[in-house]
Amino acid sequence: MEPKVMKKEAFHVIGYQFEANLRGIEEGDLGKKTLARLQENAGSILNKCGNHVYLVQLYPMKEDFNAFEDKFTQIIGYEVSNAIDVPEGAILHTIPENFYVTYTHQGPEAELYKTYDYLYGKWLRENGYAPIRYDMERWDERYKPDDSDNEIDVFIAVQKK
């Protein structure tokens, strides 16, 4: 499957956020702990649009940003149809309408960096797109992070150069 560009309407996510660099996320198991917290509190999040989860990664406006060294924000949450009744301790984040390059990563989550390296390091440049400060992953019933048949939909917010 080749990456493709699509327009995605604005939507809301209710979940939990943290700020760290990739090293801190891996060492502290922050993603797994945050996902477990979200799933434990799923019943208190009203108006969910299914059981899929979004991981939203917001990057600082920094020319030489390095995800292994520089902190950025991660939000792990459920898409909701109505942005009311945010549970205590959770946050509401609105994803704006935008164009995205989208691609489905296939394989263990530990190899996801290869997909990001390809998209950010080669595909965007070769196809005349520039990233816009954030990207997302959609985890659904195909999300089996340690398995070879794992699938993760990746969305990188882009604009034409």
Automatic annotation (TrEMBL):
Transmembrane segments: none annotated. Residues 1-159 form the AraC effector-binding domain. Pfam families: GyrI-like. InterPro entries: AraC_E-bd (IPR010499), GyrI-like (IPR029442), Reg_factor_effector_dom_sf (IPR011256), YobU-like_regulator (IPR053182). Gene3D superfamilies: Regulatory factor, effector binding domain. Signal peptide: none annotated. This is AraC effector-binding domain-containing protein. It comes from Cytobacillus solani.
